[in-house]
Amino acid sequence: MHTRRSAILAGAAFCAAPMVLAQGTTPFRFALTPVFLDNDAAVISALRAALGEAMGREIELVQRRTYQEITGALLDGSVDAAWTCGYPYLQHRDQLTLLGVPIWRGAPLYQSYLIVAADDAATSLADLQGGAHAFSDPDSNSGYLVTASDLALMGTTPDGFFSRSIFTYGHRNVVRAVAGGLTRSGSVDGYVWEVLNSVEPGLTARTRVISRSEDLGFPPFVARTDRMAEAGVAACAKALQGLGQTDTGRDVLRLLFLDSVAPADPALFDGIALRMAALAGG
Amino acid sequence: MIVMRRFRNLPVTLRVPLITAALMIVLALVASQSVLGALDRVQDARLSETARLHVEGLSVALGPSVLRQDVWEVYDILDRARLASDGQRLLLTVVADERGRVLAATDPHRAPVGVEAAAFGDGAVAPEAVRMTGDPVLRVTSPLQYQGRTIGGIVTELDVTDLLAERRQVTLWLLFGNALATAVLAFGGWLAVARILRPVGALVQAMDASGGAPRPIPHAEIPHGDPGLARLIETYNQMTTAVEERAEAERRLADRERFVSLGRLSSALAHEVNNPLGGLLNAADTIRTYADRPDVVRQSAELMQRGLGHLRDVTRAMLDQNRLDRAGQPLRPEDFEDLRLLFEPEAHSCNIALAWEVQAGAEALSSQPAAPVRQVALNLLLNAGTAAGRNGQVGLKVSNGGDRLSILVSNTGNAMSDADLRRLLASGPLPPGGGVGLRLVHDIVSGLGGTLHHDRAEGRTVIRVELPATGSGHA
Predict the structure, then answer these.
(1) Measured between beta carbons, which residues in chain B are less than 8 angstroms from residue A168?
(2) Is B282 buried (19+), middle (13-18) or exposed (0-12) by CB count in 10 A?
(3) Which CATH architecture has domain B330-475?
(4) Is the sign of the CA dihedral A69, A70, A74, A77 positive or negative?
(5) Rounded to a whole number, what is the distance in Å from the CA of A67 to chain B's nearest CA?
(6) Of A168, A173, A182, which is closest to B108 when you measure between CB atoms?
(7) Across the interface, do B72 and A164 touch by the CB < 8 Å criterion?
(8) Given CB atoms, is A209 within the 8 Å cutoff of chain B?
(9) Which residues of chain A are within 8 Å of residue B112 when distances are taken between CB atoms?
(10) CA triplet B286, B288, B291: central angle to 5 degrees?
């Protein structure tokens, strides 16, 4: 189903290309991390088509392996805007401004899940001591910060608590690592796990969620504060928030299992800030 | 050994196809071995190539990740490689670091991160050396080279169940195909050989036919396409003609023997006829001289009647002995009287004492045919008379006991020679020299289903003829 839709969207994007090329010479560079559903080329194509259509210019989707790379590109101006995580946003809160935040299941919130293999008897983080653990990214809130801050509150660190901790640079990879038995447990984005549960139930069925964090601010779209006045950036914010109003935009939202994109208040990420404080304090 | 002997006893029409089939089986085995050998080489090459490509591909992909000890990256590459290969051939791949500990494996449950990798390398060989061993799982190991140095190692378990199944299937098909081909060719061989050897079979049948009397093979059945065989059969036909001629000669000789035996008696019988003639002539003179004296005439007439009666008996005995058409007549006591009449003059002429004893009654004798028994008894008596010589003794005793008639002929002469005994008792070819009288006795007795026995004790030679009462065969 996705493949056919992606083909239609790619076709639409191709038809729109001459028009957008006529309006601007340099494409708008939008960064994504593979932390999300990197394996779904349909999402990438649809997003490019929707943003291109809404902004009236060519979109160049830039993918990097880590949040650190994305943040670096954003800060040095290599990219114009990015979909990143609440944790790197807060790390560079003085330089970054929110363009919008996705609404998932009616709220701009999500959770971090602690998962183990389906047949593992563990019921809490404490039971996982001495086992191998999979994080997604050292700059990920749900894929690192939540578990690391919990451990900090327990007076320990990931390296001290787990026999071995690895970074897989992808929430889906965390699920794969746990499902395949590479690690005993993993910290994963609850939104990603739930989406995977819909599109790849065979994969998530081999894992079991043993704890969920409190609700935290959903990974936001951000741009550099000093570039907020630029027409492209403003158009991007407008395009993102208006995704629900176009067919291509609604396709993107449906593919991403999101309701819409809403204007965001920095206070949404206070929960993450608390986690950061706990980690720093620990 | 027993099997070999039995095999040698089989007819040639069966032996040749069997040998053909055996050769076919040997050929099939050699061919199958060759095919399986080729299959082995192909499979080994395929396996080696698969293993080499797998390991080389992984080496290239894994190098940087292994160098960084990046567990996830190594696992990710292995996992994607496993999914790409559909998991059909590659069961497990373990990547070890420089210290020989597992960095990651396609199945972390079997090979958890950090354990000693050596256990997974048991029995593993280099990719180019991997061979089918019959084991469904083969292990391949290779050092992991990156930038010119060894940074770890790879062990891969290959699933070769499909190759083994393929080999099994080929073996089965070969077995089935070869069995079928062997059966067809053996059957064809049998047909061909049977056809080729048909004249030989006909020859054997002709030789076996009609109780040892070889019969010639008709001209139409001679295979003129095969000069050797045709010559063989023609030679055989010539031989059968020769045998027939010889048998005919023997038959004629045997017939003549009847006259010979009478001929041998002719001198004595001539005396036997001549002696009464003097008395008869005297009686005739007496009648003429004393025609007016009735008492003398009556006396002379009686004398003449007795003499003529004797002459009549002698001539009748001679005629009976000669008449071949008496073959169907049953034996009677009078036949032995005839024999005595024929033989006695010969005995008297040689001063031979004759002991004549016929115990068997008319009823017992009647179960035997007259002509052959008379011929047997006369031949034996003549032989005994010759053997006994002047002043010897000859005995004849005819008795019946149980269901058989026994004729004993004895003499006091010299023992019989080996050649004579062979003539009398054996069925083999006639020894050169000598007459055919004794052989005739043997043939007649055999024809009547009887037996001949020879005994020599206390200076007497005894020939005993035993004839079954229900003797049906006629000589």
Answers:
(1) 72, 76
(2) middle
(3) 2-Layer Sandwich (3.30)
(4) positive
(5) 17
(6) A182
(7) no
(8) no
(9) 181
(10) 95
pLDDT for residue A242: 92
pLDDT top residue among B90 and A61:
A61
The C-alpha of A187 sits at a distance from chain B's nearest C-alpha, in angstroms, of: 14
Contacts of B101 in chain A (CB under 8 A): none
Same domain for A221 and A95:
yes
State the pTM of this model: 0.61
A174 and A255 housed in the same domain: no
Q: How far is B105 from chain A (nearest CA, A)?
A: 8
A8 and A97, same domain (yes or no)? yes
CATH number, domain B10-182, options 3.40.50.1220, 3.40.50.720, 3.30.450.20, 1.10.3720.10:
3.30.450.20
Per the structure, the complete domain to which residue A179 belongs is given by: 112-213
CB atoms within 10 A of CB B183: 12
Question: What is the model's pLDDT at position A163?
Answer: 93
pLDDT of residue A239: 92
A168 to B76: CB separation less than 8 angstroms, yes or no: yes
Whole-angstrom Cα distance, residue B36 to residue B171? 7
Assigned domain for A22 exists: yes
Is A169 an interface residue toward B (CB < 8 Å)?
Answer: yes
Closest approach of A19 to chain B, Cα-based (Å): 40
Domains identified in chain A, total number: 2
| Structural domain includes residue A280 | no
Q: What mean pLDDT is predicted for residues B200-216?
A: 72
Give per-residue pLDDT as tens, B84-123: 776 577 788 899 988 889 999 988 888 888 888 888 888 8
pLDDT of residue A35: 56
Q: What is the pLDDT of residue A3?
A: 44
Tens of pLDDT, residues B440-463: 888 888 888 888 999 888 888 999
pLDDT grade for B431, boundaries at 50, 70 and 90: low
pLDDT, tens only, B154-195: 998 888 888 888 888 888 888 888 888 878 887 887 788 777
| B71–A182 C-beta distance less than 8 A | yes
Place of tokens 């995704």: A243
